[in-house]
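To the wet lab folks,

You asked to see what we're planning to order before we commit. Fair enough. Below is the target structure as tokens, and below that is the sequence we designed to fit it. If anything looks off to you, flag it before the synthesis order goes out.
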């Protein structure tokens, strides 16, 4: 489910139709991105901070989809080349991201890599991060004048202050709620409902205000969660009605 949360936005490309007077829209495939790219994620002071059941660095990993991923210590731009050289074999592109940018989405990363590949670039600076051609990293001794591209700057927000932590929490929470609403879950008074990233909720469930769902909780279809529940790592079986309960691993606390 997590991957679907971050990937739900599809990137589209317009193609001119030879029959219709107006353009048609068809989905563009980015399958190659995950096969040809190594993502290097740099640790930052708050990388292990948890928001909505995932650490900041786990959210960044999630945005990389099925790419091969390696976590590295933070390095300055001046020292980046020497750190990257050992990773330049085996993949066509090197993607360097910060471990405290949890709002990144898979579609944005795919779009940036597609732009990089289409323009046949050697090096590109993202709002927070970089893309390099692996062959360029292997052959150069100095990174010369990389292209700068401002892809989705809001998604590259670094979470380093209390204000930014609160903002990122609200954005991630809303993405999770939107995912469940789009999957057929009814949320009443949704801004008083908290749902962790790994919670699974089946279509047709009704959730009233003042509910907290955390961990690996599963809510099966036709359930009705009335107000005042805290449910952690618990399976709520089909057709159940729950009101004012604090459940942890299926047991009332």
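Sequence we intend to order:
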């Amino acid at each position: 489910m997590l991957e679907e949360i971050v990937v739900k936005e599809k990137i589209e490309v317009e193609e001119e139709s030879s029959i219709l007077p107006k353009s048609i829209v068809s989905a563009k495939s980015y399958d190659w991105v995950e096969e040809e790219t190594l993502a290097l994620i740099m640790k930052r002071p708050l990388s292990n901070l948890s928001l909505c059941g995932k650490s900041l660095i786990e959210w960044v990993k999630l945005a990389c989809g099925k790419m091969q991923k390696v976590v590295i210590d933070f390095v300055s731009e001046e020292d980046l080349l020497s750190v990257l050289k050992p990773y330049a074999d085996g993949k066509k592109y090197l993607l360097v991201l910060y471990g405290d940018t949890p709002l990144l989405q898979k579609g944005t990363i795919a779009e940036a890599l597609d732009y990089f590949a289409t323009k046949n670039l050697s090096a590109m600076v993202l709002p927070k991060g970089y893309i390099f051609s692996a062959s360029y990293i292997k052959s150069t001794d100095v990174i010369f004048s990389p292209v700068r591209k401002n892809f989705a700057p809001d998604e590259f927000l670094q979470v380093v202050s209390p204000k930014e932590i609160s903002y990122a929490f609200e954005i991630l929470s809303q993405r999770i709620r939107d995912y469940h609403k789009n999957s057929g879950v009814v949320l009443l008074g949704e801004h008083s409902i908290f749902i962790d990233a790994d919670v699974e909720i089946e279509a047709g469930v009704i959730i009233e205000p003042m509910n907290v769902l955390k961990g690996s909780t599963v809510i099966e279809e036709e359930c009705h969660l009335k107000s005042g529940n805290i449910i952690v790592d618990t399976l709520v079986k089909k057709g159940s009605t729950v009101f004012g309960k604090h459940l942890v691993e299926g047991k009332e606390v």
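Structural context that might help your review: The domain at 2-156 is CATH 3.90.550.10 (Spore Coat Polysaccharide Biosynthesis Protein SpsA; Chain A). Helices lie at 2-7, 31-36, 56-63, 77-84, 106-118, 134-139, 162-182.

Thanks,
Computational group
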